[in-house]
Write a structure and sequence with these properties.
globular
Length: 229
């Protein structure tokens, strides 16, 4: 592109260019207009290239594809388990910790796909949404997370405990496990994560009925717990 710009500039200054204008027998004002327009076109091309080059210099190599060399995690090296539930004035948050048990770094990104499992059939479908459902975890944007060997990432499940109490706290409301799948991770695998040990209030399953049958998800983040308020 630089070579092209140089050749264009030389053409603009060359006698051949002006001889061609003379051959067209244009009025003087018209010739001046043609020269000015051609010069403006080249100036814009040069300005555009300068902007691009300055942008590349400003960002530097570390900002361009900084994680492209890190492969997506294989499902065979990932282990999931619940962390300790945080509670505050009816707001609940349970982190799900992801550990890389492989021998090299790998990456994860975005939101997991989560399906609830209750002890018996739930009175209403349980849904997971990509936004906070309590005041425990802050809202954060999805990004690529690199897990070194033995490193951890996590996502959070947020919910309240008094949204709908008409169904009580029986087996049909006890979400004692979740099924988790990660997009783009191969081989395709559905992880079963029990919530009995570290669920609601840190000592049992999450009451999906009291949560109003809607629980929030954070995207996958670095570390063993998502950012809290």
């Amino acid at each position: 592109m630089v070579r092209f710009l140089v050749s264009e500039a030389r053409r603009l200054r060359s006698a051949t260019f002006y001889r061609r204008l003379e051959a067209l027998k244009l009025p003087a004002k018209r010739r001046l207009s043609v020269v000015s327009l051609d010069a403006m076109r080249i100036s814009r091309l040069i300005a555009a290239q300068v902007i691009v080059l300055l942008g590349l210099v400003a960002w530097g190599p570390s900002a361009v594809g900084s994680t492209t060399s890190v492969p997506i995690c294989s499902s065979s090296v990932l282990i999931l388990h619940p962390g300790f539930t945080q509670s505050a004035a009816g707001n609940e948050g349970t982190p799900i910790v992801i550990t890389n048990h492989g021998t090299s770094s790998c990456s994860l990104s975005g939101f997991p796909v989560v399906v609830a499992h209750t002890e018996t059939s739930s009175p209403r479908p349980v849904a997971f949404v990509h936004r906070p459902r309590s005041q425990i975890y802050r809202s954060v944007l999805p990004r690529t997370v690199v897990l070194p060997p033995k490193g951890t990432a996590s996502f959070g499940i947020s919910y309240v405990d008094a949204a709908d109490q008409q169904y009580g706290s029986g087996a049909r409301c006890q979400m004692n496990a979740i099924k988790v799948r990660f997009a783009l991770v191969t081989p395709v695998r559905v992880f079963s994560v029990p919530l009995v040990a570290n669920g609601h209030d840190g000592h049992g399953p999450i009451n999906s009925c009291w949560a109003g049958f809607i629980l929030g998800l954070t995207p996958i983040v670095k570390g063993s717990t998502p950012p809290e308020h």
